[in-house]
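User: quick one, fold this
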Amino acid sequence: MTVDEAARVPVVIVGAGPVGVTAALLLARRGVRTVVLERHQDVYPLPRAVAGDDEIHRILQAAGVGEEFAAIARPAKGLRLLDARHRVMAEFRRSPQGHHGYPQTSMFDQPELERLLRDAVARRPECELRGGVEVTGVGPDSTGTVRVTYRDEEGEHELWADAVLGCDGANSLTREAIGGVWEDLRFEERWKVIDVDTTGPVRCWEGVDQVCDRARPATFMRVSENRYRWEFRLGEGQETVRELIAPWLPPSYDGDFDVVRETQYTFRARVADRWRSGRVFLLGDAAHLTPPFIGQGLCSGLRDAYNLTWKLARVLQQGGDERLLDTYESERRPHARHVVRLAVAMGWAMTGGQDGAAAIRRRALAAACRIPGLTELAGRDLSPPLTAGPLVRRGVRRRLAGTHCPQPWVSVGGRRTRLDELLGDSFTVLTASEPGPSLTALAHGLGVHAVSVDGLGDDGTLAAWLCAGRADAVLLRPDRVVMDVVPAGGRDFTSTAAWASLLHTTRSPVPSERTAPKHLLRSTTR
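Assistant:
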């Protein structure tokens, strides 16, 4: 069958939630065209996700909406664990300036985030969002591309794509199409979620409160100026909203409040057993479901998008080896599984569970929280390093491999900017001192920059990071993950041949919007 050229598109994205739209923006900034198919005509108006970390803020920066997100986000102080009488058991502070250059925790309204993402997509000629459609099929075609069928009010339609990203949620048709099934990590609880808009005197500390009460565990947070969220594990009683939130209001308060949403959720912990079939990929809730106890649901989905899009763009546009796409699942699946298990563990620890050992766990938790330094350690980044693989060369002397490079403000040539804006979307060799001939030759061979931290004019963050990691140089991927390390006293990257073939370029690269300006790098590139 001859494929109509008008129906050909490099990438089809199924689902226009935050993950799908962010993926479209990340691909657009690398020059890749996408069609996003979404069943709703407009943004879903009710709040769902309300928290994000500094890593996803950095990803939104890469997607071109970092400043817009900062304008709608509200930095949070961290997490407190309260006992049944709302006495503070432990406090886990989050920094206003995290590793990625933004507040470690930010609160936001998901509809606002989705609107700003859709506005950004509307400004991109590389992106087309088709709302009000139902995707009916995803599968390989005899032409070697992926065939996507969908229907709208005008009838049935077909698209042929080089790749399909399934960002279509927990009940994903795309997951079903590739034969993926859930691995159940054995956590399932029914909770009531209440979003309230009020100007009343609600008691809060500008962070998240977790009530560790076996009888009625609860989570509370302030989302925006007058918006608050409560989550309660369902019990046998049928309390009203006012009865449930009464502990956070003065006893005499009888004012009104607007219940924006009151619904019930089943919190589950699941990871799909496969994330890819050919050029069809799963992202976000289609690939993993997590309880909300550490606020990492949306974060994990945006990490999926960031990890996959630079690899897919390189394969589609620069002749990268197809094996490069294998690293998406091999890197993201164990990482997401770790985060889901951490959320489950935190959930059992904080809520106390429903079994006879709940009181023992609560006492153990209270005792552990009194250990000096433990709460500071627990308040660090929740995202673990990526496991070893073709694009992460782990080893005893490569402790930074698989971690993210920090993002300080830098000043070069009289211009102050964030590190990622300076470096652009390319690979970068970052060195503690002026790069020697071998590192300069490697950078030249890869067509990337060799940058010395001495000339970046930051506050010493990068130099201290390299020193703490006992590294003389690192090779940064476009997603700012450390790919390889030259250990202190070393001379070169020892595994160049192992990963260079994956990145082999067979045609001229398509310029990215975020290619580093030459004049900014002149003082640090040799």
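User: anything notable?
Assistant: The radius of gyration is 24 Å.
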